[in-house]
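Below sits our specimen:

——
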Amino acid sequence: MFTLLRSCLAAWLLFQAAPLVSASLALPLPDVRVPHGSANGPVLWSDPATWGGAPPEYGDSVHVPAGVELVLDLTPRPLAELRVMGHLSVGDAPVRLGVDHVVVMGVFEVGTAADPCTQPVGIVLSDRFLGQGHPNARLLEVMPGGVLDMHGEPRSASWLQLAASAQAGSSSIRLESPVDWQVRDRIVIASTDFDLEQAEERTVLSVSPDRTRLTLDRPLDFLHWGRVETLGVDERAEVALVNRNVKISGANGAGGHLRFMSAGGNSRVRMSWVEIEGLGVPGEMGSYPVHFHHFGNGLGSYVDSLSVHHSLNRAITLHATRDVLVRNCLAYETLGHAYFLEDGTERNNRLEGNLGLSTRAPAQAQQILSSDATPSTFWVPSTGNVLEGNVAAGSEGHGFWYKIGQTGHLLDAPTFRKNVAHSNGLHGFYKHDYWAVGSPLPTREFVGFTAYKNRGVGLYYRTADMTAVWRDAHLADNATAVFFGSTGTQIDGQNRTALVDSYVVGNSDNIGTPVSPGEIELGRSLPSPSHPKMELLGHELYEGHIESRGTTYANFMRAPVAGSFREAAAFGHVRGANRWAFDPRLRVSGLRLIQAQPLFLTPTPFMESGKASFVLHDVDGSLTGMPGHIVAAATDLITPANGANYHPAWNAQLLPPSTRLANLRFTDRGNSGVESVTFVSETRDAELIVGSANESYFPTSVLVPDDYTLGIRSSSAPRDFRLELLFGYPGDSTIVTLRYAAPGPQTVRVDGMTGTSLGSRAALAASQGSGFAYDPLREVLHVKLELGGTGGTMMDGLGTRVDVMP
């Protein structure tokens, strides 16, 4: 019997290792020990009779066969492998299990949800017997059909928040509610400043009688904020319990991993109050501290109140998995994306009440994805999962990164509620890329998001083919609070992103820890300490149809610094160079401004063509005090004949409500080396040079109805190009004239249909809809662009395009 079992084990090990390990890694197989079962119930590891004599020795493998119930009631000698086909449980005794490989195909219990383990239990994964690099070394895995129940002693809270600010130098903190945390417990206090390095780990020396005040083993180095801020922005520091009585770790700091697999949904993993320290294999795809791998239907499986810290490769990963609950966990000091939904096939999983902080980038050679260079605490490539009440409290990259790919179930309605992002090196929430589906989707709502002290943007969101509404957001102390953009089928005007009934604060009372000269002069920490004059913006406007409704903006006032000023405003346009046009339908309404300058537009070189097209409708006057007026960049091309009011403090002009605007675009499709396009009004003394060197796209906002002549500076005259008119009132039109050398264009498509020249500009002007006329004698092309749609507002206009081809 013994020989047969050893032969079977040898065959299984070779099968597992063959695809991944060369013959040079093969090691002598350990002895296999098989416990004897009993008809009278469980048998004890400590009982020699269980083993027919002496218990397993150093380096043995143990195989618990089906039908046998074995209780681990002592610390065994280190093992090569522990294979559970039957039932293995840890008894009511301190246990430390050193093992290279644990494989569960039966049931492995370290406590249950109803009867959790209260003794100190440690599982240490190593490679001392199987050898370094062996695919089964440092691995605890659940195979199809296996059940893992691992439940440490429950505590009052995995994490909570401060009840009062803790000053630098303080040796105690006060918590928002009583805890059962004990002397010698390890805790970590999150940063509440821009710098994630201000997270501080401490040991509890004593607990007050009311269980809310903890005395620490050494004073704090930094301020940790502890009160709800201006307009309800909650900037209180999170405080997390790091240690648990049940712990899994890697031997000698070399890592290890837990991998859970299922076939037909018949595996179950239930873990709570377990500490996982130093796991993950650096740079190795699939080797993570907690990894649901192609688990499929995970209904009934969960990880709750885990502490995953000092990880070498991510924290908790869900891959091709659905219906798993991840709740109240801690991910602290981890490398790469921490809470990691792997490839977009994950659906209906719930991530609730989790905390992540000190999320760091691995060394370049150990980055599994290029995005690990700017890691996120929550990596989400699918909208079909629930994220609620989670906190991303300090990453070298982003807090939440929604990276929606082709498999990301864009059609699913995202559930994103009451999540928090702060102290991140880049953005709090980040979604930049998109996959357009070609038709409009229902409105998607994101509710109750909080972002503060992010060095980039608190809320950075771009969308396609849908209306996205961010409601009841609370944003404070970010370099920029909000950055919205829309991409995709803008020709039909289907994209819209709105901030609704939210609160945006420039400077709160949480001054952080000023260090640089500029910070000290301003009296507060800054997102970019070496650039103290970088403007502070509430809403950084960009391309696409963007709205802000019913939102309060507070504390955006310019401040003197470094012999100049730090400008601040509720609204501004994109900071960097921008070749994309603003959508003339940008609008605000129902705003409330408290100690906030309404607007500031940075001076714009002509090469930044997008900024010159800036327009913003103040529907009810709540931004400017002038209902119906339009804030616009100070360019003559969009100054109406009846004039406009220039506001030096805004670096913008205010246009009257009667002004009608649209977006006119020239795109060089033939690589003609166009450097700039000059738009010249044919009825007014106005022109604008739109430049974007080595690019092909030249947009601007224009007054309609009006006609324009285009002057094109290029290495060769463009003959293959597109003209578009977008985002205006139905029926509004313009005629665009430009040089086109003989012979004229061979093909002209008007809104996708082949068109015919109308012969003269007069005939073109009298025609209905878009079209063109070519004058071969003067070598001039006239293109009429007329917006489609029905209705009486800019919201009703449908874009039009004319493609000219040689």
Q: What stands out?
A: The chain has three helices and 69 strands. Residues 1-27, 488-493 have pLDDT under 50 and may be disordered. The first strand starts at residue 32 and ends at 33. The CA atoms of residues 38 and 68 lie 7 Å apart.
